[in-house]
Amino acid sequence: MLKLVPKTDPPPKEKVKQRVKQHARPDGLLQCNRCGGRTVLTATHGVVIHKGRKTGGTVVAKDVCADCYRQGVITPMMPELERIK
């Protein structure tokens, strides 16, 4: 026999995520579409410090959500540009 379970309220963390996603985004502000975070991360591999400055390295992930990246999900925050016809 199959029974329907009444829908429960989301946990407090999910409520905050939904509320942040619904806020109006100021023009030009990067915000994650998945979690609503506004922290941007650029991960670089193989950086060397030479004369007090970082040089070299390969960019592994650029402009991704730092909160999602910590959970192992790479979510780009830069908007997709439309192709010019």
Question: What does the model show?
Answer:
- The chain is an alpha+beta fold and 85 residues long.
- It has a domain at 39-78.
- It contains two helices and four strands.
- It has helices at residues 12-22, 66-70, and strands spanning 40-45, 48-50, 53-55, 58-65.
- It has a two-stranded antiparallel ribbon with strand order 1-4. A two-stranded antiparallel sheet has the order 2-3.
- β2 and β3 (53-55) form a beta hairpin.
- The longest helix is centred in the first third of the chain and has 11 residues, at 12-22.
- The model has no long low-confidence stretch (mean pLDDT 85).
Short description:
The protein is of the alpha+beta class. It has helices at residues 12-22, 66-70; strands at residues 40-45, 48-50, 53-55, 58-65. The strands form two sheets. The protein has a two-stranded antiparallel sheet with strand order 1-4.
From the spread of the alpha carbons, the general shape counts as elongated
What is the helix content? 10-25%
* Cα-atom radius of gyration: 19 Å
The major sheet is characterized as:
2 strands, antiparallel
Order of helices and strands: HEEEEH
- Strand portion: 15-25%
Question: Roughly how many Å apart are the termini?
Answer: 56 Å
- Counting DSSP E segments of at least 2 residues, the number of strands comes to 4
**Low-confidence regions:** none
The neighbouring-strand order within the major sheet is 1-4
Overall pLDDT, averaged?
A: 85
Please count the helical segments.
2
Question: What structural category arises from helix and sheet content?
Answer: alpha+beta
